[in-house]
Amino acid sequence: MVARSALVFAAGAVALWSTNALVGKSLLASHPVSQVQFLQFSGAALVFAVIWLMNREDAPQRNGAPGATAAAWMGLAPIGVGIIGLVGTMVLQYLAFASMPVIEANLVAYTWPLMVAAAVIVLENPRRPALLGLAAVLGFVGVALVISGGRDQSWLQGDLVGYLAAFGSALCMAFYSVMVGRVAASPDRLLLPSSLFGVALTFLWSARHGVAWPSGTDLALGLYLGAGPMGLGYYFWSRALKLEGSGKVAVVAYLTPIASTLLLTLSGERMTMTAIAGAVLVIGSCVAVGMERSEAENHV
């Protein structure tokens, strides 16, 4: 029952994350990153606040003594994990979206499962470390092909900052996925303070731009990015990892670059054959890593 619940939560996160790049691309075409991010963090903070209020009554049962609840709120480690995992991942990802072709940025940002695989090799005792290592290496070769052949068969067609930001986003999400199951705080207590920090940061950032704020459809899409991919997406993923770690759940997560790339392609984004080959390596490596880790957990 626990395994099934974890898979349902993970599938919900993947479904929401898959729409992130497509919706983000449409907003970034007419609005600066700072404004899109402010709306996104605002929507996410609202979702996390509602979840926290709904769970407040049974917090003592979930977290133990009142002292444990206070520690979950005030501990620096959980707050740091949340800020790096939520704020770091999303801000860097959207800087990448604004600085390079979105379809390339999305693929590079979703190499975080390969980074998690590398962490597993270092921190744990996987059954087949050589296979995990080979899959991770092939995945990063795929990233190099995506970057080198994204549009005109030459390196770094986007801003160098964009490629670094996408890679940094992947590092932040890998760190979050490894650490979220190791901290005592529940997902709502981990993510609400982080989202509020993001609201404050992006408000100060967006205040520097003297342009009209989004309204109508753009406002709704911006809030959706916060309430959906960021808010419920992160909450579902955190719940899944809390329930079952990174076994079968990991396999579901690796569907995200497949679905999001498909949606971007249907929207008109195009890649060269070199970049497509790289995308196949990235996605294939992610799936191979996920299946290996799932098999290892089943064996245990």
From TrEMBL:
Any Pfam family: EamA
Name of the molecule in the record: DMT family transporter
TM ranges: 37-55, 67-95, 107-123, 130-148, 160-178, 190-207, 219-237, 249-267, 273-291
Lineage top rank: taxon: Bacteria
Subcellular location: Cell membrane
Leader peptide range in chain numbering: none
Coiled-coil region(s): none
Domain EamA: 5-147, 161-289
Species this protein is from: Mesorhizobium qingshengii
